[in-house]
Amino acid sequence: MKIVIILALVAAGAVAAHAAAPPDQTKPAASPAPAAPAKAAEPDHIQVQHILIGFTGSVPGKNITRSLEEAKALAYQVLERAKKGEDFDALVKQYTNDMPPGIYSMSNNGVAPNPGEFARSKMVPAFGNTGFPLKVGEIGIADYDKTTSPYGYHIVKRLK
């Protein structure tokens, strides 16, 4: 509360001081700063396919023996192969610690899910954070994070 009041007083003082000062007539008017590029709006609905690369203890019910470091190395190797055009379905079948084919449809935040879709808010945050910004056909990765991606590394390809 004190910080808000202090900031308001500082802002008011700065505005009052600025308003009281006469404009400098000797300097040419500055041209306005270029506008930042608009962020592309995320779609309302997407379909993605993913490869989950887990590590020991990260995926309940799965007996995964690789370490976190080994999972990261494998995830980035698989990502590189996928980005070079290797068959994503084949990579899913070979590497995922999820159920193949690993295809999920999601609705974005604030958008009602269609039948068979998951709400983005009901999924692991990194999954949607990686999938929604992708263009159809693009591939990205969600790194392991205890909060946003607790099951491991998600290599995500946007299908629709």
Oligomeric state:
single chain
Fraction in helix: 25-40%
Strand order of the largest sheet: 3-2-1-5-4
In DSSP terms (H or I, runs of 4 or more residues), the helix count works out at 4
Q: What is the CATH topology classification name?
A: Chitinase A, domain 3
Global Rg: 24 Å
Gap from first CA to last CA: 47 Å
Task: Assign the CATH class.
Answer: Alpha Beta
Count of separate structural domains: 1
Low-pLDDT segments, ≥5 res: 1-31
DSSP strand count: 5
Second-tier CATH architecture: Roll
**Overall mean pLDDT:** 81
Order of secondary-structure elements: HEHHEEHEE
Helix-strand category: alpha+beta
| Main sheet summary | 5 strands, mixed
Characterization of the model:
The protein is α+β, with helices and mostly antiparallel strands. The protein has one domain: Chitinase A, domain 3, CATH 3.10.50.40. Helix content is about 30%, strand content about 15%. It has helices at about 1-20, 70-85, 90-95, 125-130; strands at about 45-55, 105, 120, 140, 155-160. A 5-stranded mixed beta sheet has the order 3-2-1-5-4, with helices on both faces. It is globular and about 40 Å long.
In short:
The chain has helices spanning 2-20, 68-83, 88-95, 125-131; strands at residues 45-53, 103-107, 118-119, 139-142, 153-158. By secondary structure, the protein is α+β, with helices and mostly antiparallel strands. The chain has one domain (45-158): Chitinase A, domain 3 (Roll).
